[in-house]
């Protein structure tokens, strides 16, 4: 009986190991995917998930969750689950980065199989989640008949709910068998128990999957177990009663041949299976001399051994794939023990540290890589941070700079098991920074030496000394800008299209180009200089080179990565070799686009002010003679002698009136025009003008819409604001073909009241757009261009700005009033 109990316990433990390996395989695969996904961007994560899912076929679905635990990516893709919020699950509320979390089992709505989530938390509260089906375990158990033919395996979770059972329907109904005594004892320790269930005696063995706390039970009815032995027992008694003395030896021999030897052989095979020797365990063949039940038991064991061997082969293949991925990653990956011993490292890490092979690296201790004990203590203090930079000594004695990301892996008792990390070689970057700093130091030293030499010359050279001191101060200021300001620093070679040998990292924020695109030669400096400025730029550089200047300044435009031109002030230092030949140019670029825009606006306002002053000076002198002429024309018009010239007089009077209206508009440009500012709301002005504007729009065959937002009260001259709105709306109506739509809107943003007037016309030509607001610049056949000039003047008097956005689909004027 003890042998049967032992055999049953060994088989149930083998099944528990199979379940544990199934979970371990998923954990290793997901951990490898997460470690590679940690530094990758969204595009890299998407391709990684897809390739991992296709390569291993271990998960039904792999998810990538953002910091709010919403589904961002999933493979295979299903739009219905994108943006699904999974934060309500208790497993997702953990923020630890220590290992993979396994959720409580549940029945998948898509596959109908018991399923668990494997959750690997990343930094910044992100997650990689694998949906691992337990259907493979269900299929394995459904195909098995247990230890003795009529027995059955089943798997229960911690609460007693069925996860796998020969009867699939019981699993789908999530039947709870927690009432079984064998289950409750199995959660505490490995046990074998005889008990009564619904009138039937059973003998069951149970063990616990330590990783998740599930119970594995092998159950067989006592009657089926004892049936062959009872028959043998009764036959033996009958034979013993008749021929006890004759057949005792023969009975012993037969029992040994048909029962003991097969059971011993089966016991040995069970032991081989328990220790993982599948070849010897598989050697159990048909026992022709054994009882049928023992032979059937051997056949069942043979089939189970084959299935477990196949599962082991699949796990081994998966581990080899994981190892292949681990080795091919271009980043150095490592695992270090708490005492510094190296537990594992990929090929990239081995090559980076100059070790001849991985075996030599695994025999080393990581503490020997550090330059001093203090450096090791400093690195230990930074474990858990996103990354840190440090120097390490390689196997061949060379020293390199590396960027390290490392985190501790804890057990269930929050004790550190080991450290997982990755590192990248940044030696070249550090060498470049050191060379740049050295160049700065050399430049400062040369300036100081030259300044000291010039101090000994005569008074005639004092001006040059002052200039060189100015250059020194400028270089120091530019260097400080490089360290913490918006100045782009670059070094380009004096050949061809000016290839760039160094450019500061802030070029990404200012121009939108990556430093790699310059340093790789993909983009040269000449290629981003505006084509209209390139010739002048080259000419100025050559002029300063011929004059043997050491530095100079010039302004020109550069094209950003978005194709937008921006103005830059370039302070250039000319670099020469010992022979005096120019080899490089050292440039310091400051974006002056905003200054250029302000200068343009100021020039425009100065022109308007000048025109207004001229208008104020001559308008009255012109109007008086015009009034006299108009009076005489009206007088002659009433004379019968001139009746045949009546129409001519009318035309002349109309033209005089038109000229007078132009003078009136011209006077509106006067700088010293008085204003009566009062507290009010721009929405009220628009509402008052709406009936007049709507009637004008209908007259011209257009529609007028207003979209007024909530805006605060402000101080303005209501008459001038009315004139501004009337002029702007009139221009918009004239700019559209029939059935156009003109929209007036207001809104409040960033302490500024915005008034917008949009039309659906054909847009403003580029040659006119830059001259908007200049008197007599207009696109109308009969216009004067004074209406928009008056609008700009009104806006200026109110401290407001006017911005025009135009395209082939229409134009929008935005007037921004300070609150």
Blueprint of the fold:
Blueprint: H1 2-37, H2 42-56, E1 61-65, E2 71-75, E3 100-102, E4 106-107, E5 114-121, E6 127-133, H3 135-142, E7 152-156, E8 162-164, H4 168-172, H5 181-188, E9 191-197, E10 200-209, E11 214-221, H6 222-274, H7 278-281, H8 292-328, E12 332-337, E13 342-345, H9 347-352, H10 358-362, H11 373-381, E14 388-393, E15 399-410, E16 416-425, H12 427-454, H13 462-484, E17 488-493, E18 500-503, H14 507-510, H15 515-519, H16 531-546, E19 551-559, E20 565-576, E21 582-591, H17 593-638, H18 646-667, E22 678-680, H19 682-699, E23 703-708, E24 714-716, H20 718-734, E25 741-749, E26 752-759, H21 766-769, H22 786-797, E27 801-807, E28 810-818
Helix pairs in contact: 1-2, 1-6, 1-8, 6-8, 12-13, 17-18, 19-20, 20-22
Keywords:
28 strands; 47% helix; 23% strand; six-stranded antiparallel β-sheet; alpha+beta; 819 residues; five-stranded antiparallel β-sheet
What does this protein structure show overall?
It is a single chain. The protein is α+β, with helices and mostly antiparallel strands and 819 residues long. The protein is built from 22 helices and 28 strands. The strands form six sheets. Strands 1, 2, 3, 4, 5 and 6 form a six-stranded antiparallel sheet that branches. Helix 19 (682-699) runs parallel beside helix 20 (718-734) and helix 20 runs antiparallel to helix 22 (786-797). The N and C termini lie far apart (95 Å). 27% of the residues are buried. The model has no long low-confidence stretch (mean pLDDT 81).
